[in-house]
Amino acid sequence: MSKNAEEELEKQYREYKIQFDAWKEKNKGSQGTDAYNAYVKQFENWEKDVEKRRKTIRDKAEHSAKEAAEVERERERLKRESDEQERKLREEQARKMEADRIAAQQRSAAEAAAYAQSQQAYLAHHQAGLEQDHILRAVHMQTTTIQYTQPVHHPHSSSHMAAVDEVNAQNVLQQMAEVVMGNQVQEKPAVYQQQPPQQAANPPQLWGNTKPVYDSRDPLWAKWGVRASPAHQPPPPSTLPIVPPPYWMVLDSLKERKLIIAPTAAVPVPFLK
Predict the structure, then answer these.
(1) Angle at CA 204, nearest 5°, toward 201 and 209?
(2) Where is the stretch described as Disordered (predicted)?
(3) pLDDT of 211-255, one tens digit each?
(4) Among 33, 53, 242, 261, which Cα is nearest to 145's?
(5) Cα separation of 170 and 149, whole Å?
(6) How far is CA 121 from CA 114, 137, 214, in A?
(7) Which of 106, 136, 121 is nearest to 204 (CA)?
């Protein structure tokens, strides 16, 4: 704006100066008169006023330039401060991300260690359960073999044989309890004479396929344990005769151990008149 005002002032000065010079040339003969001197004085005063206006415009322009320079310096200062704050913020975020990454690695390591401990405990418990199941199956097979080798008699044929069978069942239950509890089985007088030789049985398996037995002899056992166990193979067929136990003996044993409710006497259907 100041530039336009300065240009407008210079334009007016040039035009008025041309008119004044033309007037002086035209009125040469009137020099020294009051009217001539008054007009010349008026023009000189106007020139002084123009010079003042020029100075004012230059001062305003310089002031505006200083203000613009000050504003530019302030803007640059603010920009530098903003860049510095952004740099510090990025550094803080980078440090925080690094701390979070280290904390996440530590948590992952702790979780992995806890998981490994839980897996070891689980495998130890699972292995103990397999060993206990193997012992129970071996005892069950042994006791079943002992029972199946004895002749089966009907309870009504001889009361003495019923008492012998009952004693045999009690001895079998006592032997199973002692084996499971880890105690040494004591020799007791048995009422039977025949006893087949005890055979070493394989670990308990389920029927599935014909893959080899997976145990501590397998190279994968040391690294993975039971987690790498394949599907079980079917057990070898038994050569022992399959003779079901007497039904009355099973019922009597279950009743004494209070595992079933004794049936009540049959009540006849009332006769309707």
Answers:
(1) 105
(2) 55-96, 190-212
(3) 666 778 888 888 888 777 665 556 667 777 777 888 888 888 888
(4) 242
(5) 17
(6) 10, 24, 20
(7) 136
**CA-wise closest residue to 137 among 194, 206, 192, 184:** 206
Instruction: Give the pair of three-digit tokens for residue 30.
Output: 């009137």
Half-sphere exposure of 36 (CA within 13 A, CB side): 12
Q: What is the pTM of this model?
A: 0.31
Query: Which of 255 and 165 is assigned the larger pLDDT?
Result: 255
Question: Which residue has better confidence, 185 or 258?
Answer: 258
CB atoms within 10 A of CB 63: 11
CA trace torsion 94, 98, 103, 105 (10° rounding): 140
User: Any residues with CB less than 8 A from the CB of 86 and at least 6 apart, and which?
Assistant: none
8 A C-beta contact, residue 166 and residue 259: no
Which H helix or E strand runs over 63?
helix 34-148
pLDDT at 230: 62
Domain boundaries, the chain: 1-126
The Cα–Cα gap between 227 and 221 comes to: 9
Candidates 234, 189, 191; CA nearest to 211 is: 234
Closest CA to 134 of 203, 207, 235: 203
**How is residue 152 written in tokens?**
């089966």
17: tokens are 């100066």
> Are 196 and 239 within 8 A, CB to CB?
no
d(CA 10, CA 53): 10
